[in-house]
Amino acid sequence: MVTAAQQTASAPDAARTFPKGFLWGSATASYQIEGAASEDGRTPSIWDTYARTPGRVRNGDTGDIATDHYHRWREDVALMAELGLGAYRFSLAWPRIQPTGRGPAVQKGLDFYRRLVDELLEKGIQPVATLYHWDLPQELEDAGGWPERATAERFAEYAALAADALGDRVTTWTTLNEPWCSAFLGYGSGVHAPGRTDPVAALRAAHHLNLGHGLAVQALRDRLPAAAQCSVTLNIHHVRPLTGTEGDADAVRRIDALANRVFTGPMLEGAYPEDLLKDTAGLTDWSFVRDGDLEQINQPLDFLGVNYYTPTVVSETDGSGTHTSDGHGNSPHSPWPAADKVAFHQPPGERTAMGWAVDATGLYDLLRRLSHDFPKLPLVITENGAAFDDYADPDGNVNDPARIAYVRDHLAAVHRAILDGSDVRGYFLWSLLDNFEWAHGYSKRFGAVYVDYPTGTRIPKASARWYAEVARTGVLPAA
């Protein structure tokens, strides 16, 4: 028998109603929007150093000013309220709170976040704080960075400072955003800060990010009210084989271990995958994993944050293949340790301005997989969105129908996953504002709100108005 819900899910032109209480929000990251790079005690992060290094970032762009959110935060919160957002996911800038990565907090830095959170709460917007969205204090990188155990220990101390200052206001916390990028793009391929290119350092960084996560969760739990929620956000790669061969299936397995299970294994199951250890044995014996580390990492979570943009397609190769079609930026150095015999392929079809394939079926498949693998763990889409070549027309309007279509299709995939049993509790559109898009500088626009960078003027795009209506009603309209 086909239920009404199943009929709705299978009808592409039908409106879809999300569950009551589903959380609608948008997200940003501190280095991408705040600016004020040297104000009120803030010191350089690894991204300040990386961006100021010639040749690292397109057009020599930096986050020194970004969208000037540090000074325009009240205007930005008013925009969120105007758009009817129920939640705002933002990240704390570690070097703004603890400039050297050690010692006491800088109160001026904490005061900025106190004011921001108070304004959010006054407007009825739930604050969702991420402790780390890639802006490691440069002093900690100078001491070895994430490949060193001490950085994980410093991260737990920073988490405690943040919880002590904001725990009476913020009830939902995320430890790390996309640790895969921090480890493998930052220390493997070098296309992200700090720009190092050492595969063993990348694997060491992945472990110490895992350890930092576990230690930070413990620090948060020790200080937050019992009802507070703790999570981590992973950019789980939905990996597909190019063909049905056994070799391509093994390529999927290998990349899934490096992209996904290197984090979900220790964080959610208390162990690194045996196949990952075997695949990388020629690089390291993993002796940096000490007795007790896995117990420290494997902390109970209230939900898992999931970031999704596009699927990953791989095949077996003879070793002459390339990793440069993996969507993560070009480099002569691979972010995939011990995966020389895996080739990456561009999926067919429509692409965003990032060159990423538009394929919402990957999000559905990913959610169903996570629900199967971790059936008791609720899920939240903490990032999903697309960059397009937006512009303001002569009347000052920004029309972005491609973004509306992208978000509609991906929300339909989320709705279908919910109907099929996935416990998905919220969706955060990436991003609230056009901003500094890492090594792409200001050349890529992900925002629901257009930013005219010379003046800082904010203009809600057509997609922002469309998304506001979905958030207000909880109904995804027919196409």
TrEMBL record:
GO terms of molecular function: beta-glucosidase activity
Skewed-composition ranges (Polar residues): 315-333
Transmembrane stretches, start-end: none
Cross-referenced Pfam families: Glyco_hydro_1
EC number per UniProt: 3.2.1.21
InterPro entries: GH, GH_1_N_CS, Glyco_hydro_1, Glyco_hydro_1_AS, Glyco_hydro_1_beta-glucosidase
Record's catalysed reaction(s): Hydrolysis of terminal, non-reducing beta-D-glucosyl residues with release of beta-D-glucose
SUPFAM superfamilies: (Trans)glycosidases
Protein family: Belongs to the glycosyl hydrolase 1 family.
Name this protein carries in UniProt: Beta-glucosidase
Organism: Streptomyces werraensis
Source organism phylogeny: Bacteria, Bacillati, Actinomycetota, Actinomycetes, Kitasatosporales
